[in-house]
Fold:
Amino acid sequence: GGTTNGFNADDRLELYDGATLIDDWHEADVGVIGYTYKRNTTITGPNTNYTTAEWTFTSTESTADLGTYAYPSGTPPTISVQPEDRTSCSIEMNVTATPASGGTLTYQWLYNDGSAAGWSNVTAGAFPSTTVTGATTASLSITGTPTQVAAYDGYQFYCLVTEDGTCNKAARAAQFDARESSDPYLLSAMINACVPNTGGSCDNEGENEFVLLQSGGADLVVNPTNIVLKYGASSPPTNTFTDSFVADATATTNLNNVNTTNGCGTTLFIDAVTTGTIPANSKIMLLDPNICVDAYDFSNLCSQGPIYLLFSTDATWTTTGNFVNTSATLRYYELSVTDINGKTTTTEFNYLPNSLSGADGDYAEFSYCGGAAHTYSNDGCAPLKNILPVEFLNFTASKQKDKVRLEWTTASEINSDYFEVLKSTDGENFYVIETLKAAGNSSVNIDYLSYDYSPNQGANYYQIHEVDFDNSITNTPVRVVQFGKEASVLVSSSNSEMSISYTNLSENSMIEIFTIEGKPIYTDNIKLTSGNILYEAKKNQQYLIRIISNTTVKTIKYIH
Structure:
């Protein structure tokens, strides 16, 4: 700064994340000289452009009792590799550090759950039901079942690296986001294609390779930006197979005709480019438009359609073959999917070619968790029987006096390990109340039964997770059972006002109003269990009114 007492216009403080400016303060108020600047509590975030109205300053201050501070000497360790944000089914964090003076380095990982005021040391006791290793090393690992690890979704971690017990350096914090079974992922890849070898124009390996994808929990607009598949011999892979797609009505019709002949009886395949949008939770097949229609018998997939076909015309997808099927080194896929809400999910998968049998029809299957293939198999060119580990016929939850009876039936099970009975009181945060062993493999109907002996007053939400031996999860729909008085909501109109009357809501409930398109226009936290809300509404307009409480989640469609 300058020579004037206090701050002046030459003083400036800037906060950076690497080379990116995050926040800025400087004395830009001409003629004002002060000693203390404090950001107003009404300001909720940083600002890269200094704004006077965000700050309160004083012009007098005493420094008589500041005391003394012994600043430690020495140079802290250097951290060359920082922890990275991770979306996975396990928590894996790593640092690489170098001592500044040739001393001994020690490590301590710390965590924050997203709401605590400070950070705590990572210990086994802080993460129950999981296995914690490396809490005091350069590599932290927290593993368990996907459901167990998902309990720590949103947690942040950093490592404190100390040299000779005195001089330390903190790594950057990284966030863990739990993978969900509804995320997009690579289901399987036909690595050693079935080729008819009839002398036709489609008798090439690359023309008959394909991959099967799960679209994820939201709709996808079909374009090369939203669906990106890469392949290669190293991580991350760099060869892109999805730079261009084409609609092919002829190939789609021919494939459906063959499957109708094989007994499907329905339209299994839909041209994704023609449709334009792929619905949530759909299967997508990426393939060459010149695939031989008689190379495969897809009738095993009849009950799992529709399957949306993406015909790739990317120059990288060659007719001579793309997926290595003989090698002692790993091969990698990277799938990146951006849904209609703008959320991008990127996951890497790998397989070992020498784990395949070497015959036409060899394929690998993968888990939504990513990583290594969990199954290498060959169905004799009638592929992918085992896409779904379990097929639920039904799931019911019913009130029986002071308990809840939970029943479900499976029509088939393939490599199913166990079932988790999950419960929630808000419809969002579920926890396991019972675990039941699954049949493993079955082609007949099997009935399962569980009870919740301690239901809560209000709404009780239930869901069943089937967990495969590779940790893949198949979910049932959520069921709700009410205990206590039923909430009541009545909507009526009076001139320009819409009246919402409610009774028997729990305290701290919420009422939300949306346009028919889903745009939020009103939110109110309700402290009384009964009352009335008036909202200025437009005539002849449709609204969605949602009530969220401990006893109910209810949506009402209303025309004012």
Notes: The CA atoms of residues 152 and 366 lie 24 Å apart. The first strand starts at residue 12 and ends at 17.
